[in-house]
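User: quick one, fold this
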Amino acid sequence: MTAAAILILPGTSVAHIAGEGESAAPEAVYSLSKQSGQSFAALEAPVELDLADDSGVNLPLPFNFCFFGVDESALGVTSEGYLTFGGGVRNRPIPLPSPTTPNGVLAPFWDELRPVPGLSRVRTATIGRTPQRAFVVEWRDFALSDDLGARLTFRALLYEGSMRIEFHYLELRNGNGAEGVGRAAGSLASIGLEDRTGTKGFSVGDSLSTLPLRGGDSLSFDLQPESPARLVVSPGVAQAGSEVDLPVRLLGNVIGLRGLQGRLRITASDPEAPALYVRAIPAVSRPSEDRARVEPSLPGQDPLDFVLPVGLLDTKGRVRIDDAPAQVATLRLVIPEDAPQGTVYTLQIEEALLAGDDHDHTLDVSVPPATLTVIGPNGPSVPFDQLSIQAPSVVETGEATVVSVLATSGGYPSPGISVQLFLTNPAFALDQFTATTDADGFARFSLTTNEVAATRVLALADGADPAERFLTAREPVLPEITSEPPLSAAVGQLYAYSLSTTPTDLELTLTGPPGMTLQQGD
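Assistant:
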């Protein structure tokens, strides 16, 4: 059965869809890698720059260089160990990124450098052949303001074509001869990248694996292709004759959420199942704007388009979602009273386009569809023969009871069952883990990730009402997931696992081999 869902909010529209000729530059994302124990070739025919202490000069680049999604044709070279696409000279380093000028910074070693008379030099060179050239800037034999005996020699390389950035460290020696420690190893330097706005960037100091630096080290920043934002509908369970809200979440980087449009298809496992009633509700709404129509989905119809206003309404605020989910809408589904128990409705978003202030985003819809399962008054009632998780089971609040189906003879968990766990705040898949089985036959599992989960509002325009923000700010944390198995179970009875997450607003999705379906309980 195919059912159409009407998801039109009257009187609303997508605020901005890019027209012909408008720019839709992708968001730039860089990855960092470090190598050690290298030797670096001498520069051939370098050009020496006439730079005094605390000075800089603008130079044309031999090729256009794409930096944070913007093509640059000129570069500022300073005597303080950094390059800039958008600012002057500042001797004391500042954290990256920062709106404080200078902006558009590439900093291999931004510190209070001190030129040594007759010895220190800043040189440039272009190496390689078109279309794989590299523009090199080298700082040679510089001292530090509080250690005149220190000797620092390092380079920045900008690569044509790949737009790769490399920092090479030829010598990083303190005045006492020590290497790999102290200020000459970068303990006080700003090292990293920053865009022209000073709001996006990467600080090497935030990564404990890259410091300290020493001679023979190199850092590489590789431009990654834009990961398309994804639109995900959360699964759910409901009894016949009830209503259920399924959150619609956006995963990815979007600036200035303004509107969402796309196409939804609903199918049912039972060809005779009645149509659902669907209502679309924007994440931020006021009574005057909450005018979504409730319409039945009709068997056999083609999927219908939907248009939703999302984000900051009636303001000029700019909110950035940074690698974390944000709820942009809710699908309120009304399950008819005659819907058969066990019916599974599948909701698949087939096309989606989101309008943002930076550009329009064609959303990745190649994600597993959401499911809505019709259950009886006592929960699911499908037998199983091993502990596994088939349809996604979601813990929305961080603490919930996940109810299993009926236990049957021989249906207790088997030792060593492998389960794949996904944590969708932020959107990344964790490594596979194995549940351990207690003597009573119940599996108990816990996992703490090495990834950091953080949702944060990076920018809000002046004059915008902070109350309009629907994102929450949180300091980075290491997510942890634990379970408490039931105390006992018997054949023909339900039993439940209690799952908890830290932080408590993480969304937890478990998937695994077919066999048993876990559903969220009360």
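User: anything notable?
Assistant: The chain has three domains: 1-21+229-377, 29-224, 380-522.
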